[in-house]
Specification:
The structure is a homodimer. Chain A contains 7 helices and 3 strands; from the N terminus they run ααβααββααα. Helix content of chain A is about 55%, strand content about 10%. Chain A is mainly α. Chains A and B meet through α5 and α7 of A and α5 of B. The structure holds a DNA duplex (30 and 30 nucleotides).
DNA sequence: TTGACATATGCTTATATGGGAATATATTTG
DNA sequence: CAAATATATTCCCATATAAGCATATGTCAA
């Protein structure tokens, strides 16, 4: 059993970088035809259709037919669970700015150590 | 080529529900031994170790040896990219209407007001 | 050293899924 | 109807990865 399906869990849906790019195009709230997204992202049309299909199934976008076009529109409210989840941790970088650098350095050190012994998987 | 590896992309790392549960345990900022997480989540120990391993590689947690225990601690700063990305869409649900719609209505209202006063042209 | 405890690390297997190419399904226009 | 345009869908393939189980590694205590 793997993780929840991309068409079910919004966290998984946005885990795909190309899907975040698609969302980025729709981020202004306006409607976009598939072809417009294709041009803007220089992405193959089937890929765009598929990603939009996933986003539609998970509810992040909605679609309406207009002529021979299908206009996709962001349904940003579906992203709220992600925001709610991550917002809890906001305090850690807004209140402890001084420690961010330190943590970054520690992390880099740990990576060096783990890379030195083990490897990626 | 599939999506970026879970050990590389924090979006992908948190796409796994069990990993979000693990993060949830560490959310208070304190250190936790693997066994504590195992007990709290009632999850098999190897699973917890593996998930913590992924989170460590992506930088979301750090680990320190203490005796026979390995203490894991949240490195919340690594979640900031997620927060930054999703925060852009916050306006869509904090305002009852989307910003664009709202602005259109505000303009319409301003017109009504100015027309009523007989100002402007 | 031995044994108990804590954690990590192989394995294998099942499955989801993204990409690419080709094709199917509308929809509009001539 | 035929052609053009827009979009979706299907098929195949490669790969990532999570689960489960067994086992290895590491550390402390007696």
């Amino acid at each position: 059993m793997a993780r929840a399906a991309t068409t079910t869990d919004v966290f998984n849906a946005i885990a795909e970088p190309r899907r975040r790019e698609v969302i980025g195009v729709l981020a202004d709230g306006r409607e976009y035809a598939v072809g417009e997204v294709v041009v803007r992202l220089k992405m193959p049309q089937p890929a765009v259709s598929k990603h939009l299909g996933v986003l539609r199934k998970v509810g992040v976008v909605s679609v309406i037919k207009r002529g021979q076009h299908r206009m996709y529109k962001l349904n940003a409210a579906e992203l709220k669970p992600v925001h709610d989840w991550v917002k809890v941790f906001e305090q850690y970088w807004t209140h402890q700015l001084g420690q961010i650098k330190e943590r970054a350095e520690r992390k880099a050190l740990e990576r060096l150590v783990s890379d030195a012994k083990g490897e990626e998987r």
